[in-house]
Amino acid sequence: MGRLAGKVAIATGAAGGLGLAGVRAMAAQGAHVVMMDVSSAVRERARELAAEGFEVVPYTGDVSVEEDVAGVVELAQRSYGRLDVLWNNAALLSPEWMLQDTDVLHVSRDHLMRTLEVNVGGVFLGSKHAVPVMAASGGGSIINTSSVQAAGGDLTLVSYGTSKAAIEHLTRSVATSYGHLGIRCNAVVPGLIAPPSSPAAAERPHRLEDIAPARLIRDSQMLDLPGDQADVANTVVFLASDESKFITGQLIRVDGGVTGHLPTLADRRRLAGAAPTPLKAGLG
Ligand SMILES: NC(=O)c1ccc[n+]([C@@H]2O[C@H](COP(=O)([O-])OP(=O)(O)OC[C@H]3O[C@@H](n4cnc5c(N)ncnc54)[C@H](O)[C@@H]3O)[C@@H](O)[C@H]2O)c1
């Protein structure tokens, strides 16, 4: 018997990356998974997983569009009669998008608003539509994907960091409001997780792990090993399962220790070519 046998899950951002790895891990533990992504590639990925014997259903939709989110919850109910797990994982994260996301003076309002609409709006709408359905069958587990970028200020990625900080608040808010209905809500907080190398990845003009803030995160790890998709997927399986039945309102950091030590503003300033903060007279 798998650790998620009999459970019905929805995973968003499921066409690739961490989402796809997490879907595979949940399905391997016996979950029935509805895979949602704005990219129609989710259909092909679902066909591949189904061919391997996993119980998955694809759904093409945008997490920032309420009818799409209502539709995926409806599909889970129609296909499997219940909903136990919602993994709100979709986010705008292409290297091209992230390179435009610098600081308040240089980021457009449109960029900020679209980032919030997808990253935060998707978590909000997912929770809104999943909670009543989960409550009807005695509870469930909502898992949100945050990021180490939520943990502090930075000289860049202002929209992304703001969105992930909001997700962490939403996580605690949903946990607080619906715990009495048996609904748990936690966030998985990845550090830098590079996708497995592939010929297609090697040909991309920009790779996430090559963007300077990502390199700094890698250099700030306590552990001298790369984070991989299984590290996040294993945590998602744990939070989806009854093994975590007494855990709610928590941020589970899967980051090699990046957020466990003092900040690295000096590194950030060096990277931006800015002068270090002068020490106050008397301290130096
Ligand atoms: N990879 C990392 O190092 C890392 C680190 C910290 C946090 N994260 C978080 O992990 C999650 C997954 O990241 P990833 O690295 O797998 O990225 P990814 O770009 O490979 O996957 C994101 C998926 O979300 C989908 N998506 C984007 N907008 C959507 C929308 N409006 N509606 C539905 N789907 C949409 C994309 O099509 C894509 O398949 C994100 O929340 C990201 O912020 C990733």
TrEMBL record:
Any matching Pfam family: adh_short_C2
Keyword Lipoprotein: no
Origin: domain of life: Bacteria
Family: Belongs to the short-chain dehydrogenases/reductases (SDR) family.
A GO molecular-function descriptor: oxidoreductase activity
CDD domains registered for this protein in UniProt: SDR_c
Name of the molecule in the record: Short-chain type dehydrogenase/reductase
InterPro entries: NAD(P)-bd_dom_sf, Sc_DH/Rdtase_CS, SDR_fam
Keywords of this entry: Oxidoreductase
